[in-house]
Amino acid sequence: MSSPIGGITLDEKEEFLYLSHYQYGSVTRHRKDGKDEGEHTVAGGYDRGIVRPQGLADGIGMRIVKWPKNSKQGKVIARGEEYNVFGVITVGKEKTGGNVWLKEPTDVLVHTPSGAILVVDQANHRVIRFQEGDAFGHGEIVAGGHGKGNDATQLARPYNVALDSHGNLFVSDWDNHRIQMFARL
């Protein structure tokens, strides 16, 4: 892919991946099974109204907030190492990029059956899973986390995630211009 991927999602039947191309302002459709049918632009492109489409996370505030149903207040489940304006003390001794600290989170996905929350930690080149009931800041690295790179176990500034019904994780790997699939989480 010639443009960084700003978003990724699966259709209801899980046959197609829809990718938002940050640089070109378009959304394209691709077969999930990898069979090449060519690239189909389904929205935007060529100055048709979409500008730098992206995912959803508080990247500037470097935190992930869970809002329980019918709640009037969110609960911070993970926080980054900067912009801690309220003086909240987090778990961990140093800001070394351990799984307690986020650096530029760019996307969040809730795995509906389990309630787990997947967070794309872009500047740390990984995806972290937070389980319901985990202590604040405790998560499990489920993709990447081996430094920036282009090997099968590495990511380079991941941006978005999607899950299919089988638990396969799809990660848009921004600097590598690829979609990485990690089998059954």
Automatic annotation (TrEMBL):
Pfam families (alphabetical): NHL
Gene Ontology BP terms: proteasome-mediated ubiquitin-dependent protein catabolic process; protein polyubiquitination
GO molecular function: ubiquitin protein ligase activity; zinc ion binding
Keywords: Repeat
Domain of life: Eukaryota
Coiled coil, from the record: none
NHL repeat start and end residues: 146-185
Family annotation (InterPro entries): 6-blade_b-propeller_TolB-like, NHL_repeat, TRIM-NHL_E3_ligases
Protein name: Uncharacterized protein
Organism: Didymodactylos carnosus
